[in-house]
């Protein structure tokens, strides 16, 4: 197996450039590719595209992507969503935009179709994609998110944006010191150490020695209502195989949602990992991999 050097998209757009874009203009996503050194064959399974959640990036999925490639023989592409990671910053962030970005990625990589795995915001993006462009989807895995209800926990996210935006950011120190200094400030508002560590993966250093958040906080704040609500798309269905996998200790996908989910995804299957919360893939990676690999290999 070889892991290709990540494609790092375009440079973030200025406000003027961004306003000049149409409301449905896709961007070129940054991605990392996990693939075999063997020549591709027409018998190869469809590639798997992995989509992170809010505040995440492709690097969060690195170890799992290696396993997916080894255990499914699929080429695996982990992407950075727009306004996250190494992908471009824009003033637009809706599920229609995220889906169009994925469609552009398939065109760019010359994939006829792909399997998709998405967590949280990424799960809603791939659900929207499958409903709008079903002919491009082989299989779908949705991790701990529902197209029906929204967890009250998700609605607390704007307070995190405010905290991150108003911190006194470090300058001219090592990354370890910068993380420590930033964590001390975050701890005054965020008691969950695991959540703070996750947020700190977005800390990056500029050429002048100062530190910034690599996520586009202003756009994500302005677009939060769109992120927190799945768009009305009831006239569509995706008839292909779908696995909804949730954390048993999470309220992001509730069993009371199942009937309405089945109206959109008639072949949906549901699995819950006991003891796992919203970040089930990092809290219970073995169980998460077992269920999802079994589904991909059917």
Report on the structure:
The protein is of the alpha/beta class and 298 residues long. It is 36% helix and 17% strand. It is built from twelve helices and ten strands. It has helices at residues 15-20, 62-72, 95-109, 121-132, 157-165, 175-186, 193-200, 217-222, 224-228, 258-264, 280-283, 285-297, and strands spanning 2-7, 31-35, 48-51, 76-79, 114-119, 137-143, 203-205, 211-213, 242-247, 268-273. The protein has an eight-stranded mixed beta sheet, sandwiched between helices. Helix 2 (62-72) packs parallel to helix 12 and helix 3 crosses helix 4 (121-132). Residues 1-22 have low confidence and may be disordered.
Index terms:
alpha/beta, 8-stranded mixed sheet, two-stranded antiparallel sheet, globular
Strand content: 15-25%
Outline: globular
The succession of helices and strands, N to C, reads EHEEHEHEHEHHHEEHHEHEHH
Write down the Rg: 19 Å
For the sheet with most strands, the description reads:
8 strands, mixed
- What is the topology, as strand order, of the major beta sheet? 1-2-4-3-5-6-9-10
Distance N to C terminus = 22 Å
Output the structural class. Answer: alpha/beta
Instruction: Specify the helix fraction band.
Output: 25-40%
Q: Name the poorly predicted regions.
A: 1-22
Distinct helical segment count: 12
> What does the average pLDDT come to?
91
Q: Would you report the number of β strands?
A: 10
Write the layout of secondary structure elements.
Blueprint: E1 2-7, H1 15-20, E2 31-35, E3 48-51, H2 62-72, E4 76-79, H3 95-109, E5 114-119, H4 121-132, E6 137-143, H5 157-165, H6 175-186, H7 193-200, E7 203-205, E8 211-213, H8 217-222, H9 224-228, E9 242-247, H10 258-264, E10 268-273, H11 280-283, H12 285-297
Parallel strand pairs: 3-4, 3-5, 5-6, 6-9, 9-10
Antiparallel strand pairs: 1-2, 2-4, 7-8
């Amino acid at each position: 197996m070889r892991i290709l050097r990540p494609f790092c998209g375009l440079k973030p757009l200025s406000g003027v450039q961004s306003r000049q874009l149409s409301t449905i203009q896709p961007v070129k996503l940054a991605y990392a590719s996990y693939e075999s050194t063997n020549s591709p064959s027409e018998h190869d399974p469809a590639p798997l595209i992995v989509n992170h959640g809010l505040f995440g990036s492709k690097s969060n999925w690195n170890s799992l992507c290696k396993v997916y490639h080894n255990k499914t023989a699929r080429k695996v592409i982990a992407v950075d969503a727009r306004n996250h990671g190494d992908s471009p910053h824009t003033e637009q962030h809706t599920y229609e935009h995220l889906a169009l970005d994925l469609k552009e990625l398939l065109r760019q990589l010359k994939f006829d179709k792909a399997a998709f795995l998405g967590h949280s915001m990424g799960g809603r993006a791939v659900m929207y994609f499958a409903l709008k462009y079903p002919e491009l989807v082989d299989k779908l895995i949705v991790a701990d998110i529902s197209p029906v209800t929204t967890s009250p926990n998700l609605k607390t996210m704007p307070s995190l944006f405010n905290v991150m935006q108003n911190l006194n950011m470090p300058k001219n120190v090592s990354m370890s010191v910068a993380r420590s200094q930033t964590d001390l400030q975050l701890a005054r508002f965020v008691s969950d150490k695991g959540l703070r560590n996750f947020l700190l993966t977005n800390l990056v250093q500029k050429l002048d020695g100062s530190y910034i958040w690599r996520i586009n906080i202003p756009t994500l704040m302005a677009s939060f209502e769109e992120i927190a609500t799945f768009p009305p798309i009831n006239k569509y269905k995706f008839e292909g195989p779908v696995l909804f996998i949730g954390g048993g200790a999470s309220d992001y996908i509730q069993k009371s949602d199942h009937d309405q989910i089945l109206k959109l995804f008639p072949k949906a299957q549901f699995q819950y990992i006991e003891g796992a919360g919203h970040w089930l893939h990092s809290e219970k990676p073995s169980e998460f991999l077992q269920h999802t690999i079994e589904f991909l290999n059917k």
